[in-house]
Amino acid sequence: MDSLQIYANNSDEEDLSHQPSTPSADSSPPRLIPSKSAAPKVDDTMLALTAAEARQAQSRPIDPTQHVVAFNPTYDQLWAPTYGPAHPYAKDGIAQGMRNHKLGFVEDASIDSFVFDEQYNTFHKYGYAADPSGSNYIGDLDALQKNDAISVYNIPQNEQKKRKIEREKDEDEVDPTEIDNPATDVWLMKNKRSPWAGKKEGVQTELTEEQKKYAEEYAKKKEEKGHQGEKGEHVVDKTTFHGKEERDYQGRSWIAPPKDAKATNDHCYIPKRLVHTWSGHTKGVSAIRFFPKYGHLILSAGMDTKVKIWDVFNSGKCMRTYMGHSKAVRDISFCNDGTKFLTAGYDKNIKYWDTETGQVISTFSTGKIPYVVKLNPDEDKQNILLAGMSDKKIVQWDINTGQITQEYDQHLGAVNTITFVDNNRRFVTSSDDKSLRVWEFGIPVVIKYISEPHMHSMPSISLHPNTNWLAAQSLDNQILIYSTRERFQLNKKKRFAGHIVAGYACQVNFSPDGRFVMSGDGEGKCWFWDWKSCKVFRTLKCHEGVCIGCEWHPLEQSKVATCGWDGLIKYWD
What we know:
By secondary structure, this protein is an alpha+beta fold. It is built from nine helices and 31 strands. The chain is flat, with a radius of gyration of 45 Å.
């Protein structure tokens, strides 16, 4: 406590000693005059902000979209890259005016490809390369000094001489016995003809008897296989007539249409009930076709290799069976008058049959599977056959001569359909390559190619009765409509959907008056849509399994035939 007291006294004394001495009477009083300025008071906040903004403008890059620059920019600012996030309207953040390439703005490089390769390889070998923006080098500078800044392409003279000496030295060290032995690499290097001749060539010796025999057998087998592949599988053609008599009491053929067969009215109606079932195929039915114009007979192609023709108007029985394929029949097509028809089978054969007698008139094959066959619909060109093949070609034959007269080879997948348009001057083909191609008949050059990213494969196409539209069954479960006019445009207003066809080549078809669109589906139903409104009109449960084909009767306006993979053909009214 005593020490604290002493400390307090000391501090009091110090304070007193620091106080200024009071002025004496003789000394003058202090003059405290406030400073004054004649300049008016100015608020300089805005001035500071403007100066800061100007400085900022000098340093920031110029927006490429602005049209006016309010100051003199520097060279660096003008050529600075575009910064910031992508512009919401200008693609890739670059204004349209600045683009000279679909991916943005491209400048020509001022470096030759040889120079670039030289520097690239030098960097990977030595670790240094010339900097393209200036005269200095980048990379390993120690290696640069050590190698006197040489590149891989300019090896100094002494290095070349050294390599030559080493090569000669290696050659001297080679064992002379190895040079004479053709099995060694040394002999190979010595006797090679070119940089690419790297095969070891043994001394040619005579074949033994056993080897000769094997070679002959192999050649023979290969030749046989080649012929078989060329022509398709050969089957004896047979036919069976199942009717009572081939000619009636008046001498008329069984295929002759009834005299009174004509259209009852012009108005088509949707069928409601099943009126008849034709069963005779032991496996699924892949296609059906009514007899042209009259529809008094219906032809069916079966997966049991048989083609059958059935009576529609009278007995409803099978009239004739045509057996000429060794595998399932894929497609069938009548000629204009119905007296002959074509069949295409998975045995790689196309056969041209006489409907009445069941005789095969001619057989065609390229050694590939035909997926679709069609005769030219013109009356004067009924001898021209078109077939879409599995090897991406459409092959054209002259039936009279049996010669291939044209090949249309542009598709990138198997050809699925052939549809004639524009008074048969053109035809449209679809393929597994998900495209449509339009051809001028007889000219193997595509005149219109339709392929969009959203398109799917179209395994069935049908022509509207007014010939202005094509209905294409798309494998994304919808039917698309294309115009047959010059541009073959997709009609975006017409789209028929609701059915499930993904994976199946279900046939699409029109009613004869064009008011209804119909199609089978993968669940055995037959769907009917109204052409004008695109609405589903009716669905019929037709088959167990897939309903693959559907045909509207050409004369009886409310009758429809369907076929399915259950082996049945059904007739609806």
